[in-house]
Amino acid sequence: MRQAIQNVHTCGDGPFTKKCHALLEEILGVNKALLTTSCTHALEMAALLLDIHPGDEVI
Predict the structure, then answer these.
(1) Residue 12 domain flag
(2) Collapsing DSSP states into helix, strand and coil, what is residue 14?
(3) Residue 59 maps to a domain
(4) pLDDT (0 to 100) of residue 15
(5) DSSP label at 38?
């Protein structure tokens, strides 16, 4: 935290985010991991990627 604040990089795609992506990809054994700022953002992104439209049923 101190290093991020001292480098004035407290959000976005900084070096700590990139390290976290790499660690998650390694631990989970996936090609790509993506962090989001909230569960809401993650769910919205999932809906976009699934091409969900008004009237579609989501269970």
Answers:
(1) yes
(2) coil
(3) no
(4) 83
(5) S
